[in-house]
Amino acid sequence: MGQTLTIALSKGRILEDTLPLLASAGIEPAEDPDASRRLVLPTNRAEVQLVIVRATDVPTYVAHGGADLGVAGKDTLLEHGGAGLYEPLDLGIARCRLMVAGYPGTTERLRRPRVATKFVNISRRYFAEQGRQAELIKLYGSMELAPIVGLADLIVDLVDTGNTLRANGLEPLATIAPISARLVVNRAAMKMKHRLIEPVTRALGEAVNERDRSTVE
Ligand code: AMP
């Protein structure tokens, strides 16, 4: 039997922005992933299938070989740690920034801030690199609420327009990292399925370059 290629994607922004790039690379789902409840979607190419997983699970699926390729935000990859993964391509989609935010002026005043975030690993590293102590409070959503109700002094969250922060009386205080979605590849599959993976990676790279050229013009 021939080899198959499994690509892990998550619904929402990443799926929306990745499908046109995959289409340029000659891969199209056989049915609309947004309308479908199926978690495994065949494509127009018999040897390629898509699997739909939670965004934070994409690195886990790919690292353990449950998928050969995946698309994940750099935030998710930094939080996961990236063991077992190659990251050959910045797809330049789902762009935003990972930021520290709080009430104006908060960062400078506090010696040991309480920081609410779903990115506890990234935040721990960030404050440790600055030689600052922080008490990390893990949340799964609505981080902006934490300073309002006194649960935390600061938050670490993704910021795009800044509207969510502003609407809650918070402001960005520092950027931890610029974020965009990346193509990730299982390290073993990169060798064992090179014949299948290399053309897809190359075609996606060309699609990204083509898109960027046409947006500059
Ligand atoms: P904004 O109000 O435009 O700054 O967007 C901030 C909200 O959208 C936060 O709740 C973020 O978690 C979420 N967000 C913004 N950009 C992204 C992204 N690229 N990927 C995932 N979530 C995002």
Any overview of this molecule?
This protein is of the alpha/beta class. It has two domains: 5-94 and 180-216, D-Maltodextrin-Binding Protein, domain 2, CATH 3.40.190; 96-178, D-Maltodextrin-Binding Protein, domain 2 (3-Layer(aba) Sandwich). Helix content is 35%, strand content 28%. It has helices at 13-24, 58-63, 74-80, 106-109, 120-129, 145-148, 163-167, 187-192, 194-216; strands at 5-9, 40-42, 48-52, 69-73, 85-90, 96-102, 114-117, 135-138, 154-159, 171-179, 181-186. A hairpin with a 5-residue loop joins strand 2 and strand 3. The chain is elongated and about 60 Å long. Adenosine monophosphate is lined by residues 13, 73, 94, 96, 157-164.
Identify low-pLDDT runs. Answer: none
Number of helices: 9
Instruction: Quote the CATH topology of the largest domain.
Output: D-Maltodextrin-Binding Protein, domain 2
Taken as a percent bin, the fraction of beta residues is 25-35%
The first-level CATH class name of the largest domain: Alpha Beta
Shape: elongated
Count of domains: 2
Give a concise summary.
By secondary structure, this protein is an alpha/beta fold. The protein has helices spanning 13-24, 58-63, 74-80, 106-109, 120-129, 145-148, 163-167, 187-192, 194-216; strands at residues 5-9, 40-42, 48-52, 69-73, 85-90, 96-102, 114-117, 135-138, 154-159, 171-179, 181-186.
